[in-house]
Amino acid sequence: MAEAVVSIVLEGLSNPIIQELKSLKSVGGKVQSAQIQLQFMQGYLKDADASQGRDKTIRNWVASVRDAAYDLEDVIETYVLKVAIKRKPNVLTWFTGIFIKGVNLHQIGSDIKKITTEISELSSNMLSFNLHQTRENGGDIFFQRQQERRITYPHIVDPHVVGLAHGTKILVTHLIKEKGPRVVSIWGMGGLGKTTLAKQVYHHGEVKRHFDCFAWVCISQQCQGREVLKEILTKLISPTNEQRQKIADLGKDQIAEWLWNTQRERKCLVVLDDIWTSDAWRLLETGFPMNEETESRILLTTRNQEVASCADKKGFLFAPKSLNDDESWELFEKIAMSGTEDTNPKTYEEKKELGRKMLQHCKGLPLAITVLAGLLARKETGDEWNTVRKNIDAYIKRGTDLGTDYKGEGFEGVLWLLELSYDNLPYYLKLCFLYLAHFPEDYEIPVSTLTKLWVAEGFISSASGEVMEDVSYRCLNELVGRCMVQVGKRGSSKKIKTCHLHDLMQDLCILKAKEGNFLHIINYFVASETKETPNGRVRRLAIKTIKAYCPGRDENYGHVRSLLYFVSTNCYWNSKVLRSLLRDFTLLRVLKFEGMCVIKHELPGEIGNLVHLRFLSVKDSDIRAVPSSIANLVCLQTLDLRSSSHYMYLQIPNLNVFSKMEKLRHIYLPSRHSAREKRLLFATEAVNLQTVVNIGIQASDLDDFVKLTNLRKLGVIIFDVGEKKEKGTNIIFEHIHSLSVDSCFKGLPIPWNIVLSCPNIYKLRLHGYITELSEDLMCLRNLTKLTLREFGNLKDDHIKVLEKLPSLRMLFASHGSFSESLVCSEGGFPFLEFLSLMHLNELKEWKVEKGAMPNLCKLHIEDCLKLEAVPDGLQYITTLKELTINWMLPEFCSQLGEGGEDFYKIQHVQSVIITNIWHGWV
Length: 922
Known about the structure:
Layout (H helix, E strand, L loop, with lengths): L1 H12 L2 H7 L5 H24 L4 H30 L19 H22 L4 H6 L4 H10 L14 H12 L6 E5 L6 H9 L2 H6 L2 E8 L4 H13 L3 H9 L2 H14 L2 E8 L2 H7 L12 E6 L2 H7 L4 E3 L6 H12 L8 H15 L6 H11 L5 H9 L1 H7 L16 H9 L3 H9 L9 E2 H11 L10 H14 L4 E2 L10 E3 L2 H13 L4 E4 L16 E6 L16 E6 L4 E2 L1 H10 L5 E3 L4 E2 L16 E3 L20 E3 L25 E3 L22 E8 L14 E8 L17 E5 L9 H5 L6 E5 L17 E5 L3 E2 L1 H7 L7 E5 L2 E2 L3 E3 L9 E5 L7 E3 L9 E5 L19 E5 L3 H5 L8 H4 L4 E5 L7
Parallel strand pairs: 1-4, 1-5, 2-3, 3-4, 9-10, 10-11, 11-13, 12-14, 13-15, 15-16, 16-17, 17-18, 18-19, 19-20, 20-21, 21-22, 22-24, 23-25, 24-27, 26-28, 27-29, 29-30, 30-31
Antiparallel strand pairs: 6-8, 7-8
């Protein structure tokens, strides 16, 4: 952790503003000295981080280095912002001594000197730990033991195998298939049973008959290319003593050539078990004929999806799933309860009930089930099982750390295996992973929010000029590829929309966050949970609460830079407590204050104190007024003022309140606010502005956005037709991929000139009357999701335009009407996967011709009370898997039931859900 913090701080010290600071006589030398000392220590910190768990002295030293780096960053940034506030409008771009008048340089210099002295002392102390030598010379006994525990042997086959038959069959088929993939990969998180599955395949009868020779090698985290290639060759050819001596004398290239030729001449199966990195594969690939016709195959297991892709982009990738409830119980019963049923039926039933309860904590992870069952197999009585149940999480996670009962008997917990994945992360991904500890258990984390938080925290850098949000999303993808994070939902463009952690991975995340004092969690959701006292200074604070709670400012909380609230409904805050929070935590960079009920419905003026703030979200917090002091937030990158309530009206103090926010990247306004009928001004230097939601404009005027060349998401509210109605606009916004146009405010028709100015959008939302749909819409070749709301009367020729959209996969139509019956013609909507029809009160008849919507998977019909029946053409859509009917008349619903006159239309659909049948107003 200290390595990550110091690396991030050093990146910040290379900022041009800090370079200016170094030129100042009374301060610059001290900053330069601190920077040099941190750079010196940086090379040793990875070793220190790895060693601190076993040495309290090193652990304390690491904590001191981390705090000193944070302190240096805080004091320098505070100084820079004090200078910036005294300057003229173009904030945070340059400064000179002329603007420093009134800033206490002596105090700043004294603070920096104190920190620099501390860093210098820490640097001197480091040498006594001999950190670098310990790891380089292989003297780290703990690390070596970890590696030895990961070595796998193909002849040792697990006697308890459950749920692998399907995966084994698939993998065997691909391995023995003529002209099949060169590489077959098994990819998944630690403990998922990848090696066990690989052994089932390796020993399968068809595999043994198909291949001539076999080699199994365990790569693990330290890969020596020559030694691994030598081991593979030796196993494939079963060398004579003379050949063994010859191999021992050969260099890597000669061994690789011999191995290459062997695989060309014979049918070989090579298993590379537990290969961690693409670099490891690159050390080995010279020994494999990847680009030539051969019947030899490679089976590899990995936690990193990138490895599989690197080895063979056309290879087959298999991702095992967690065990379901029945499979989990079968595996558990085989290990923990085998042969005990007949000895004492009463005890057996007691154990069975306890076992099923404990099994829920394993979440289908085979390793966790095996660990738990292996321990319980040694316990004979129900009381002993009940003792384990009371401390179930600790037994599964830590195993031998629990006491002396089973130390030295080979019993292991789960976290040591998962911890290997964490240790293998580069420093910037460690920070990104640890940040997930903020979020509650089973929380679906919005990726859009998460990536912005990472940027605001300074975890993401973009030296090549790449957009930081893209780098941030790539970091998430890498964590997914390493099986550290799981995908929740995907959006219309197939990008990850939400993510979450496996329960045991979340345990590891929280454990590591606490160990490194990365985050302190206060959880009032669980009344029985012990509220831990912070271990040193708290930099990040996650508060999960059912009531208004503000931690008092003390020595521990005085340096908080990230404060995220997670609240239940009806959490009310009075202004006094809120003002206290904004007054005391002046170093905050992130404030996520969502879902609160602020009694006076206003954001206090003290918000202007938080000049370090990068991320501010008061989404759904019933805020109805923001103060003019919000203009002080010159570092702000993300501002979210949205509300899910259509009745909330936000008072914005003046039109240029955002004009000093040069760092602004994302701004979300509620749909109703005081500035939506006027031009809201943004900083002319806010060139990185990417998101503007619910901004008021004239129907034909996008001139205010012409300089915002990085704009990606735009939501506009039309407040006037404007003078340029006939002229339209010649501005083309190449980067906008999401567009929302709302013209219902004034009852105006949708201005198509705005839509056609954004030719590369993949998401389009139109709220308002549609008077025409021209063929020009065909230029939106990337459009995958279209939402139409309150659209008036859509005619048949309008539908024919929509069904020709070349990439449309999702269509939502609500609160509108069709002037004639809705007809989906043959060949129409060729790629549509999801269709939702809601509140279409005039829709009576809907026809789907044979060959229409050939890829439709999900259909949702809600509150279309005049619709008489589902279309006959649904019977031809074989891809339809899910039909949801909500708030429809009883006679409509009864026709769809088994035996109903419309049942034949939907009998092939796997899931038909009918809810809230409409019986009229009661």
